[in-house]
Design goal:
Elements lengths: L11 H13 L4 E7 L10 H11 L7 H10 L5 H9 L7 E6 L2 E9 H4 L3 H16 L6 H16 L5 E3 L8 H13 L5 E4 L2 H6 L10 H11 L1 H16 L5 E3 L5 H7 L2 H6 L2 E4 L4 H14 L8 E4 L5 H11 L4 E6 L1 H4 L10 E8 L6 E2 L14 H11 L4
Parallel strand pairs: 4-5, 4-9, 6-7, 7-8, 8-9
Antiparallel strand pairs: 1-3, 1-10, 2-3, 10-11
Helix pairs in contact: 2-6, 3-4, 7-8, 10-11
Amino acid sequence: MAQLNSILDNDFYKFTMQFAVSRLFPKAQAKYRFINRGNHVFPTDFQQKLKEAIHKMAELKLTKAEKEFLRKKCPYIDPTYLDFLEGYRYDPDEVHITQDNGMLSVTIDGYWYRTILWEVPIMALICELYYEEVQLERVDDPEVCVIVQDKMSKYDKLNITIADFGTRRRHSYKVHDLVVRTLKEHPSKTFIGTSNVHFAMKYDSTPIGTHAHEWFMFHAAKYGYKMANLLGLEHWAEVYRGDLGIALSDTYTTEVFFKQFDKMMTKLFDGVRHDSGDPITFAQMTIDHYKQKGIDPKSKTIIFSDGLDYDKVENIVEFCEGKIGHSFGIGTDFTNDVGLPRMNIVLKMTEAKPDDGEWTEVIKLSDEPNKNTGSLEEITIAKTILKIKN
């Protein structure tokens, strides 16, 4: 049965955000909700299996070896946080699961510094349990490795760097393990690391990530939509002082982001991450922004991470080459390419309660409208405030 075996089996940006939240917003609370974009129908006893797996997560704890790995690999994270993480335990009472006619409901609520770690492992568990329960046959282990090797042989010819971003919608832990091992053993220097901290440690690689949409969504709840991007970046810089310098751009559309990405932040951050909308349009907007600020785009980097496969990557490289730095985070095309339909699920923050304030709905206005989250009423309010026409 699917279960997690390490507290570090999670995306790196969850830990980097947790550190920042514990530093700056220790009293903040948050709520999250599972969104079944693919309308997947779950087996009758699925909720019970998921509850059992989540209850077992309460037994996970940071080992001495894991703590030492983080200390060596992440010198920008304070030792006080590592002490905190050593004492952290998942609390299953923060997670609420129901099921009705095959439709699964998962919600999370509690202090933000605690609940922030749930999203990625719960999604990974949902995927793995789903494939276990519906008993769909995948390709065998050697073929998984061959698929990855073939892809890397093609990527090598593009002279790029690639990271694994595939934890949340992986087929299973076993497949993910095979993928990262194969990437690490590949003879080229194309593979530079993984977002999964557990596998980064297991295969002596680099954990990669900065922050997610929820960082800016919370800032909107606390400071308003007009200040969310700028204050989110300023607070990030306050904690990390120039490290972890890739800014996520599409929480309230890239157009709005670049209006708020002032010259100081533009110079300070190493680059931006693309996570929705047309990547070529985004690349051109980014290049134009740097030029307008008097900055050579070739001194900055775009991390592309939106549903990538080889054809998309090839098109992006062809456009960006010689114009701006570029690297790629590839997710389910690595960790769930096993001959089965891939799950289309997310788990997003829905409300935030800054300090001792009121619960406030939070939304995301993606460059791809189908990725928007939140009520139509709140989305309309945000668009009006931010002067977004579409």
